[in-house]
Amino acid sequence: MEQDTRPRVNHMEYMEGMEQVDSDIMDKVISARNAYCAEDYTGADVKRALMKDHLEIEDFAALLSPAAEPYIEQMAQKAKQETAKHFGNSVYMFTPIYISNYCENYCVYCGFNCHNHIHRMKLNTEEIEKEMAAIAKTGLEEILILTGESRTQSDVSYIGEACKIARKYFKMVGIEVYPMNSDEYAYLQKCGADYVTVFQETYDSDKYETLHLAGHKRIFPYRFNAQERALKGGMRGVAFAALLGLADFRKDALATGLHAYYIQRKYPYAEISFSCPRLRPIVNDATINPKDVHEKQLLQIMCAYRLFMPFAGMTISTRERAEFRNHVIGMTATKISAGVSTGIGSHSDEVEEKGDDQFEIADSRNVDEVFAAIKEQGLQPVMNDYVYV
Q1: Of the four listed, 130, 153, 314, 343, which is most buried by Cβ atoms within 10 Å?
Q2: Is the pTM of this model over 0.70?
């Protein structure tokens, strides 16, 4: 992998053109993360939290601690009750579509990073339409549009055109692209986007600096405040995630939960959701893998999210095994992807050229197979529950 000769800019200082929002949320979240000592909590703290109907921040912190591991069964049972109370037996289905894998960032753990020698590709509007038409034929009514983080190759107007095409085929359109300013989010909302997902990756700002060596993604606060700018731009919903395994996963889970919590309090109308991704192997570097976050810990985190923010949606990724995904739907997860590819041009046979994947997936089931698995658990697969008037 070639060296990046760009100067290392201060990862806490905004670059030119980056919108700054008047918000104290980042300071509160980072302060709480840095102060969090998971080993300080006891079984008594966990039991006390599990007896409550509404959790405080300290209760959430206790449920993320090692002391909570012997109580995961109780956490799971209560999480299942909360999920049923707020979401019934519904499980929402969607699929991501990657339309470009060009990237200008140097993130050491990502298959799309600008110095990784992969086959780069960008779909044109005709190819995007072919891909979306093929996906729509599976019966799905929600799609998540993704790109590598390159404003040069995937500018805002290009993403906007993809949103317009998506609105022809789908009733719900999400975007997971590079962070933008609020006016750009407003433009994409007018083009048809409903919600924005941004992975902060890690909330450890020092670790963040060592992982994001160049590009706009290096700027920690601009990424942190993306959800708030998206809501200011009129987006209906925002999703939060840390990439578990990059840093102390308990601290990052706490920070993710608090980030969502404070945004919800500031924007009570916003639809809030969590994603719970772990590291996966990438092209040209099979050593990238979860090291300390096992399925037991992932389940603990998901249960803690559900009990702390019972109204929040939660997505379980194809990064996880089919058996684990089947286990958590209806318990904690309310949304599941199906028919997934993280490569470019992989949904339609009419798109001849293909681009390399961002990472390896662990669950390759198609839409029908995931639909059947949901039904087998006595749950109801839902393609869409939002009606435009």
Answers
A1: 314
A2: yes
